[in-house]
Please model this.
Amino acid sequence: MSRIKPTQRKGASTVKISLLRRFVMFWVHHLQQALGSLGELTRNPIASTMTVAVLGLSLTLPSTLYVLVKNSQEVTSGLENASEISLFLEKRLDQNAVVNFAERISLWDEVESTRIIYKDDALQEFRDYSGFGTAIDYLQDNPLPDVVLVTPKEQHRSAERARMLQQKLELEREVNSATLDVTWLNRLQALIQLVQDVLAAIALLLCSAVVLIVGNTIRLMILNRKEEIEVMKLVGATNAYIQRPFLYTGFWYGILGGFLAWVATALLVWWIGHAMTRVSELYESPFKLSGLSFNEVLILWGVAVVLGLLGSYVAVRRHVAKIEPQS
Amino acid sequence: MIQFEQVSKTYPGGFQALNQVSFSLEKGEMAFLTGHSGAGKSTLLRLIALMERATVGRVMINGHDLRKVGPNKVPYLRRDIGMIFQDHRLLPDKTAFDNVALPLYIEGYTQGEARKRVQASLEKVGLAGKEKHYPRMLSGGEQQRVGIARAIVNKPPLLLADEPTGNLDPKLSMEIMRLFESFNDVGVGVLIATHDLGLIARMRYRTLTLKQGEMINDGLQHGQSSEGVAHE
Model:
């Protein structure tokens, strides 16, 4: 009974191995197990391929939707910057007063520039383009007011700031009414927000599905190797040692699935972009769909790896500890 | 080395496999454990190997009180016990070399480092040159010897064997027993569970006998019984 602690016994046989060497060996072992589990994937290629495909394609949908949302945000942020406030002036003002007023407003801090549309010009334009033509000549006097178009400065162009400016302008004596046409913009933004929320929900659901699917695949792998695990436990393997190859398998699923998701997303974006270019050509706008950036690809890959690891972790936590040698 | 103090084991459902068993095995001692099927031999071995826990009483292995060994420490204790099974428990998809090297891999050796020890181990059981054979290419006796090589490869102070000769003919059985003797000669404690009474008679070692969960003979002369042995 003089053999006391296993650590002491272990120490006696391995004391010559330096700490540094042990540290190096630890990583060498990790590398060996990582490569070993990569080889394990090729042993049952069909199950592995299917799991990787599920992982990759499940991530393709949210990432493609993300690309579309990102692009639509870019487009609408351009629209938002073009916001303009139209001031319909009181009819009693004469031309001088209008010019004075426009000049006064253009000196405001919030205002970048102003442009006047005189009521006579507006009527002329209306006559030319509306198709009422001579019918307008029957009018006794011009029903249109003078209009001043106000372009706010850069920092006052957001929907909220522009609205504040609009209200301020409305208080001016010369102004009959001021309109800021941001309602449709707000609606569009709300719509994009809705799509974003739906996207988040779909992404969450698909990610949970991926975790469960990877977990189930790993669970089957563990149960297939039940006997081997029992023997390993009998000769003193820790749970951590037995778990490691399975965790690496999850890691590889993530790496391969992430790669697949990237390729599939790129293909989809290319395809959709192709269709969009035709549409934007018809509208004569130089819109171009931008795909995933390098950082976004890295994030996509990271998410895939985390999901793979998480799935395998769930499986090994539940099943490796449960397998105990029976004889 | 092994010390049982009033150990009882009751399985869920009420079956009492061991009833107040006390005995001790000194360091470097070799002994047989015998009894009919169902007498509790396997349960006793399973308690030593921490595959089961005692319901009542104290089991000490290599100086550890097993009641105080948490699940995380179990693997480390098992590394100090070489276990040999009737059905070998070899991994069929691994070569003899890799089967024997398994405990070393688990302790953190690389294949290169393990090579010398594995070869020495296989040589000792008379299987030098069969490193690359898979278990199915080996005979029953050879498979058993691979199992023994695996049990001794990390030089544990204690060997446990559960019916190691169960499937072997008398001549092969004797060879296996001689192998255990040679380990015992260099100071390894050996406990062999067997119901092969003829073999036991020829070997003249201490024999512990279980009957219906009770130790009816601990193999020691009366008055010579060591501490903790409470057989009347």
